[in-house]
């Protein structure tokens, strides 16, 4: 299990890069890399050479998140201005602009079927579900327990929803907040099932295992990466090694490894069978905000790829084997 | 002996023999006989010496001392017989009579300046008397004479530990190398010390090696698999969460995993755990601490480290539980109490914290610098706290804090934290120059010491620069601090940075810093408020500029829209959220932004018109230039073409002549073909060439035509362009007229801005007062880490345990937030 450097794009954006994702391959082309930056632009890159393929503008105040539709042709981006922009990856044409209250959109993810876009609702203490055919708001899942007797500000303080993730079967939805709460929703019933305990600091990244619909990975400011059984509320293991806040986590498509990016400027590769860090990469010169494994699929694409982005304005691409 | 039983010399030699065979009663008998048999002082001295040595060997030091002294007394000069002096010295050392021992050893040195044992003994005495330099000299001299004496190297190492880490490490390593080559056993303490020193020098891998060797076999050999094993049993790995439970150890033992922990290795295991903590392998560290506590429940340091780990991940309940656990073992443990006070302070439990620190003071008789500093900080915070500011109360708190800081300084003039505290008080009182001096010194001292980290002093220094209006320096200081200590992730310092940019009127940088802060702390709405203000200021500033491009105006309008959006959100929120800002003020901002946006529309239109004008002007100029250029080119090309045609004409003529000539030749050749068959080959070559030339000619012609076409095309374009220019001109004229209106609009705004400026100045003043609150926040003197480090090194039983871990004292910034936030960015809208 190893990462080998393939390509570095220095100054890929004019400012810190905060978000990265892969748009899966379509029949016409291979997978594309999408990055979002404080410079207010979203860029699309192709091939192992990372040639810039397109640029989507329209955001103000810095792009916080990008997400790609599983079909590969549509992507979404959000910025600090709290607009969610949906655009065509290949033509860069804007498909829809979803307006939310300021500070009520943070990270997001399409469900595996591609029918719903879940957007972490920030200050609204909820996850917003947008219908991807009508681009209307379908549902809002509150991270707060219904029976809480505390009210108003008390109730929502610390419950700023930062990120959200779908299980591979699309039945569970996880979200995490500034105070470290991780909530698990049963999507079909539209209900909060339970919280996963363990983090007491912001959890900025979540990802479900691509092979096991129950296994959830979390990355937190407390420098830990944790592995949970999301259905049974059990903590499977906690992994530490980063010297700073862990900003991003992604699971390899084969389900055997994790990659994490942290404020200590390093990217780590974790072997899940050993539950230990097996490689530390120190190529970035500033904190690493995003790591993303390329999804499988497309012509002749067997090799694994990992892309990482950082405050140092660069994108790094690695071969994962 | 049988011949002459009274020969004292022979008796002495015999006694010597029996001494080495260990038959001390025979020595005594023989010596009594010898003493009776002679009057020779040297011989008597030998006899007394033998007696003394015998008692010495039996550990009867008092008797030994008596006889050594008797032996010495017989001698006129130490040169006659030196050994009793050495013996006496040793015995006196044992009896703790350092002075006499010293003088005896010095006598030995006079006679035998190269006596290593004596040098080492001297070294010990100097060290015990606190003359470290002299001690060091003695040991160094001894190692020069005998470099293979591991013991002397160890002594040197221990003497250097507190002053020269690398020197100490080198000495320990010398000892280690000597021991490795010899059959002697390498002591665990030596390895531990080497490990600790590597740890201090941040050489974690080397430290790891040393600890590993020191620990030898045990469960700690393969922690990965042990932890994995205990995980698989439980299906649950919450070491950090489930702090007090020993279940996993019971189960491991049930599975036959031996969890032996020899008493001598507890310290090393603790150090190993500290090392894991340092390399962020927290699971392993927690496992080891828990193992230590499982085996030795009274090991308070392990308790406190567990508490520190819990605190680092913000698990405050577990943290408090561990501290209380430590206090159950030892209710007067200063470290545990200090830790508790700190946690209470962070939880905003002011009264409890004060009580806890006072308790520490009582236990230590006021000599514990940490608690004094903590109380100083407590008073400092108290001065800046509270919604309503009571000037009198504030002053008394500050005075009290100052007193406490000075108290620490008088006890320990090198205490950086106390100095930092004094600096804070000075800054608070507006004495920036002196504060700067102090902070700079502290910062330099801290930078020169690898074991100390005080990010707060960087921040404080930056605050002072800000207070002095040296924005560039302040920015640099904040940025360096962020990078050096916080991985660029501290939103609070980003806020300070933004504030500096704000003061320096660098709106875009200000906004950028704030956006980074928001990205890190999205739930802090105050940051959004500040960002909105930065954008509003930017727009105002650009709109006021005498010269600005339409792009700038457009940008400022879009910023203004963003600002308005943010303000409207915030005004909606203040109703039911308490985020610490004034609802009315936000309303005012909303209104102001709306108003400004209206005004900006006019600006925008004007600017866009202006832009169009200049664009048109530029366009006209450009086209004019292009036309000229094209004309000139066309002229040139025509000339060239003419010449070319002439040349071609000539060439053609020449060629035609040639052809004629060839034709004639051919005709002639055909006639003579039969005669000149040999020439055929040649002739064919000739025709080939001809064809070639023809081809080329044709090409040339084509080129010429094409060029002509292109030229014509260009002309066509030009003419159409000309039409355009004429068509656009009327617009340009209209734009000119409008510019008057624009000026009027400007005038209106100018009023606004002058007002704004005034209010800003006022605000700035009040801000600068409150600004000092920021140092408050930071003032938080992390307690004397240096001290903790000093304690940690118990020489051979060295213990890394920074019992008062840096974690414990990480500064509390949350308190200052409120105060600062309020003042963060007063806007000029009111």
CATH class of chain A: Mainly Beta
Broad CATH class of the domain at 223-329 in chain B: Mainly Alpha
DSSP summary: helix tally of chain A: 1
Largest sheet of chain B: none
The CATH homologous superfamily of chain A is termed YVTN repeat-like/Quinoprotein amine dehydrogenase
Count of helical regions of chain B: 36
Tell how many strands the DSSP assignment of chain A holds. Answer: 28
In sequence order, what are the helices and strands of chain A, one letter per element?
A: EEEEEEEEEEEEEHEEEEEEEEEEEEEEE
CATH-defined superfamily of the domain at 223-329 in chain B: Tetratricopeptide repeat domain
Can you give the helix content of chain A as a percent range?
under 10%
Low-confidence stretches of chain A: none
* CATH architecture designation of the domain at 223-329 in chain B: Alpha Horseshoe
Radius of gyration of chain B, whole Å:
46 Å
Structural class of chain B: mainly alpha
GO molecular function (chain B): RNA polymerase II complex binding
Pfam family, one (chain B): TPR_2
Biased composition (Basic and acidic residues) (chain B): 702-719, 813-830
Region (Disordered) (chain B): 607-650, 677-830
């Amino acid at each position: 299990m190893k990462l080998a450097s393939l390509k570095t794009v220095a100054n890929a954006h004019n400012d810190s890069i905060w978000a990265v994702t892969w748009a899966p391959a379509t029949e016409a082309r291979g997978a594309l890399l999408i990055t979002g930056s404080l410079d207010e632009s979203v860029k699309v890159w192709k091939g192992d050479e990372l040639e810039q393929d397109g640029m989507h503008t329209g955001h103000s105040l810095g792009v916080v998140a990008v997400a790609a539709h599983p079909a590969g042709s549509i992507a979404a981006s959000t910025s600090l201005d709290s607009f969610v922009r949906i655009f065509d990856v290949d033509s860069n044409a804007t498909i829809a602009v979803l307006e939310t209250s300021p500070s009520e959109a943070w990270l997001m993810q399409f469900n595996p079927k591609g029918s719903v876009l879940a957007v972490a609702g920030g200050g609204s203490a909820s996850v917003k579900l947008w219908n991807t055919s009508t681009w209307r708001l379908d549902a809002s899942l509150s991270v707060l327990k219904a029976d809480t007797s505390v009210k108003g500000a008390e109730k929502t303080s610390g419950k700023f929803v930062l990120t959200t993730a779908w299980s591979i079967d699309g039945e569970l939805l996880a979200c995490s907040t500034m105070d470290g709460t991780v909530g698990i929703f049963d999507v079909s019933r539209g209900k909060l099932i339970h919280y996963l305990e363990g983090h007491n600091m912001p959890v900025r990244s979540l990802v479900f295992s691509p092979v096991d619909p129950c296994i959830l990975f979390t990355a937190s400011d407390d420098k830990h990466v944790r592995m949970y059984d999301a259905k049974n509320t059990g903590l499977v293991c906690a992994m530490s090694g980063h010297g700073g806040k862990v900003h991003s986590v992604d699971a390899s498509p084969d389900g055997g490894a994790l990659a994490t990016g942290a404020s200590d400027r390093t990217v780590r590769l974790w072997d899940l069978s050993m539950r230990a860090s097996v490689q530390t990469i120190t190529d970035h010169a500033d904190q690493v905000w995003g790591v993303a494994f390329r999804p499988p699929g497309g012509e002749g694409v067997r090799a694994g790829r990992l892309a990482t982005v950082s405050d140092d304005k660069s994108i790094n691409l690695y071969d994962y084997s | 002996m049988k011949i002459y039983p009274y020969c004292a010399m022979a008796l002495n030699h015999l006694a010597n023999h029996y001494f080495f065979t260990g038959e001390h009663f025979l020595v005594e008998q023989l010596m009594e006989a010898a003493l009776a048999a002679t009057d020779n002082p040297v011989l008597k001295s030998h006899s007394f010496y033998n007696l003394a040595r015998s008692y010495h060997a039996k550990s009867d030091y008092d008797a030994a001392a008596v006889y050594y002294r008797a032996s010495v007394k017989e001698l006129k000069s130490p040169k006659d017989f030196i050994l009793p002096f050495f013996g006496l010295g040793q015995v006196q050392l044992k009896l703790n009579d350092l002075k006499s021992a010293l003088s005896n050893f010095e006598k030995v040195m006079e006679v035998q300046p190269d006596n290593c044992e004596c040098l080492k003994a001297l070294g010990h005495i100097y060290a015990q008397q606190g003359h470290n330099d002299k001690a060091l000299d003695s040991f160094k001299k001894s190692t020069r004479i005998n470099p293979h004496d591991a013991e002397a190297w160890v002594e040197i190492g221990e003497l250097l530990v507190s002053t020269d880490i690398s020197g100490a490490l080198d000495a320990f390593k010398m000892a280690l190398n000597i021991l490795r080559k010899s059959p002697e056993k390498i002591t665990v303490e030596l390895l531990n010390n080497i490990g600790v020193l590597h740890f201090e020098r941040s050489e974690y891998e080397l430290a790891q090696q040393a600890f590993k060797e020191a620990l030898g076999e045990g469960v700690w050999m393969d922690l990965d698999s042990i932890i994995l094993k205990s995980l698989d049993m439980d299906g649950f790995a919450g070491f950090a969460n489930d702090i007090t439970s020993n279940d996993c150890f019971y189960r491991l033992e049930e599975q036959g995993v031996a969890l032996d922990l020899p008493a001598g290795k507890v310290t090393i295991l603790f150090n190993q755990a500290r090392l894991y903590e340092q390399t962020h392998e927290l699971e392993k560290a927690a496992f080891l601490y828990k193992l230590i506590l499982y085996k030795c429940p009274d090991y308070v340091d392990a308790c406190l480290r567990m508490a520190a780990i819990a605190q680092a991940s913000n698990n405050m309940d577990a943290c408090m539980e561990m501290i209380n656990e430590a206090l159950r073992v030892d209710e007067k443990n200063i470290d545990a109490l200090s830790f508790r006070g700190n946690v209470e302070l962070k939880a905003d439990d002011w009264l409890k914290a004060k009580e806890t620190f006072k308790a520490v003071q009582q236990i230590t008789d006021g000599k514990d610098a940490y608690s004094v500093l903590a109380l100083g900080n407590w008073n400092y915070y108290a001065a800046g706290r509270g919604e309503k500011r009571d000037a009198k109360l504030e002053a008394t708190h500050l005075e009290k804090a100052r007193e406490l800081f000075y108290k620490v300084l008088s006890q320990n003039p090198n205490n950086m934290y106390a100095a930092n505290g004094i600096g804070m008080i000075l800054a608070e009182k507006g004495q920036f120059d002196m504060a700067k001096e102090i902070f700079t010194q502290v910062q330099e001292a801290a930078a020169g010491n690898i074991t100390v980290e005080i990010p707060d002093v960087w921040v404080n220094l930056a605050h002072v620069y800000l207070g002095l209006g040296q924005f560039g320096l302040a920015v640099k200081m904040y940025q360096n601090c962020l990078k050096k200590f916080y991985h660029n992730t501290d939103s609070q310092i980003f806020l300070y940075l933004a504030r500096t940019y704000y003061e320096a009127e660098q709106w875009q940088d200000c906004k950028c810093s704030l956006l980074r802060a928001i990205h890190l702390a999205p739930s802090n709405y105050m940051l959004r408020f500040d960002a909105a203000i930065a954008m509003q200021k930017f727009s105002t500033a650009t709109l006021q500029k005498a010269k600005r491009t339409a792009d700038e105006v457009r940008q400022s309008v879009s910023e203004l829209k963003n600002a308005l959006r943010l303000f409207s959100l915030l005004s909606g929120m203040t109703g039911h959220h308490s985020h610490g800002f004034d609802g009315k003020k936000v309303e005012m901002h909303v209104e102001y932004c709306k108003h400004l946006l209206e005004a900006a529309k006019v600006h925008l239109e004007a600017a866009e018109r202006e832009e169009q004008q200049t664009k048109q002007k530029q366009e006209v100029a450009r086209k004019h230039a292009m036309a000229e250029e094209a004309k000139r080119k066309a002229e040139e090309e025509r000339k060239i073409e003419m010449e070319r045609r002439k040349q071609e004409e000539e060439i053609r003529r020449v060629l035609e002549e040639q052809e004629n000539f060839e034709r004639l030749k051919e005709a002639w050749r055909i006639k003579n073909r039969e005669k000149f068959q040999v020439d055929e080959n040649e002739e064919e070559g000739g025709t080939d060439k001809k064809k070639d030339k023809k081809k080329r000619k044709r090409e040339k012609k084509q080129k010429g035509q094409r060029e002509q076409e292109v030229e014509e095309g260009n002309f066509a374009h030009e003419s159409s362009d000309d039409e355009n220019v004429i068509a656009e001109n009327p617009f340009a004229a209209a734009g000119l007229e409008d510019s008057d209106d624009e000026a009027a609009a400007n005038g209106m705004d100018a009023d606004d801005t002058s007002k704004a400026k005034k209010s800003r100045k006022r605000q700035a003043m009040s801000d600068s007062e409150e600004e000092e609150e920021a140092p408050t926040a930071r003032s938080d003197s992390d307690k004397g880490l240096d001290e903790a480090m000093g304690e940690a090194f118990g020489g051979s039983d060295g213990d890394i345990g920074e019992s008062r871990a840096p974690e414990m004292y990480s500064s509390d910034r949350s308190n200052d937030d409120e105060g600062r936030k309020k003042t963060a960015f007063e806007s000029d809208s009111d």
